[in-house]
Amino acid sequence: MVAKQHLLINGKPTVVADMREPVEITLEIEQQGVEVNRQVIDTADYVLSEELAVERKSWRDFHNSIKDGRVFRQIKELKEHYKEPILILEGAPRGTFVFGEEVKYDDGLAPNAIRGAYLRIAIESVPIIQTKDYKATADVIGRLALKLYEEEKSLAVVKGKKPKTLEEQKLFVVSSLPNISEKKAKTLLEQFGTLRGLFSASKEDIAKLKGFGKVSAEKLWELFNK
């Protein structure tokens, strides 16, 4: 799995795109000043960070994946690998998810089946973003990557500042770990209290914390134990 806190190439925010995704989308993303690294991804279509990934579905593919149940398996896998998965639904007819609106589909799929799928995904706490076309999809992904990059820059530990108190020293040590921002370091210390407590924590306990996914917890645990 390709993942860092936020992905960078040559100091620029980066999105990893699955090789099977349309080139038109990746070109549009690059127009926003975001690097795109195309490779094969087993889960998700676009990876923006260790925690955030996007599954993109065209309207036709969404229909088909409801019929064969594939979309629900994909959502489950997304949640297992990423703390903040997002589903982008591209090209849905106007009024599709407006309850009470009468919408007919040319393949005979009942509107209630579509809305039932929408509710099931919502219950899984996976947000659905509807986009008009591939350009709008690229705009959403590019904006997300840039926002992650700016947030991480604002939370970066100030280099050269000598920690004075014991709490500052512990924060300095934890935030120096690979892919651990100052915000994440504070979360870890608030939960585990001491460095000893953190270093002896299980990967399951780390994965439960806000901002940490299964993969990031695994990497951190391996750092402490291998």
How many discrete domains?
A: 2
Task: Note the run of SSEs as H and E.
Answer: EEHEEEHHEHEHHHHHH
If classified by CATH, what would the architecture of the largest domain be?
3-Layer(aba) Sandwich
CATH class of the largest domain equals: Alpha Beta
Amount of beta strand: 15-25%
The best one-word shape is: elongated
Radius of gyration: 20 Å
What is the terminal separation in angstroms? 19 Å
- What is the helix content? 40-55%
Please give a structural write-up.
This protein has 226 residues and is an alpha/beta fold. It folds into two domains: 8-153, Rossmann fold; 166-225, DNA polymerase, domain 1. The chain contains ten helices and seven strands. The chain has helices at 23-30, 59-67, 70-81, 111-123, 134-154, 166-175, 182-192, 195-199, 203-207, 214-225, and strands at 8-9, 12-18, 35-39, 46-47, 52-58, 84-90, 128-131. Strands 1, 2, 3, 4, 5, 6 and 7 form a seven-stranded mixed sheet that branches. The chain is elongated, with a radius of gyration of 20 Å. The model is unreliable at 1-6 and 155-160 (pLDDT under 50).
